[in-house]
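INFO batch 0412 | record 1 of 1 | parsing
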Amino acid sequence: MDRDTFIQALNQDLTTEFQSVVQYVQHVAAITGPEFLSTVDELKVHLGQELQHAQILAEQIAFLGATPTTEVAAVPAWSGSSEALRADLDLERGQLERYRERFAQANELGLADVAEALRPLLEQTQEHVRDLQGALGE
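INFO prediction complete | emitting tokens
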């Protein structure tokens, strides 16, 4: 992978972080039921972290000399609180895989500073996956 392809991948990751922000805002507002009260509180934490992830990605893209995207990936439609949480889990799992790839790619390209900036995204996304799996009883 070359540097330009890596930057394009980071911008694609940024579109999914923007999706996460929009999706979590929607789900925090719309998920209902007493069984989901603590889950909604956790989603609010995730929301703040997703915004931080977007900011970190944008900063790394700019650091590499490119312009961060403003595109937002589409938020899937859902019906019911469990389906919304499933969409969140699917999104987080995809992001986790991409962050593992991006961390390795940054190191392969000799971009140790970028790799270290991505490490918190990887760690927090792992926590998000575990939280959502627990909420869904997996």
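INFO post-check: DSSP finds four helices and no strands in the chain.
INFO record closed
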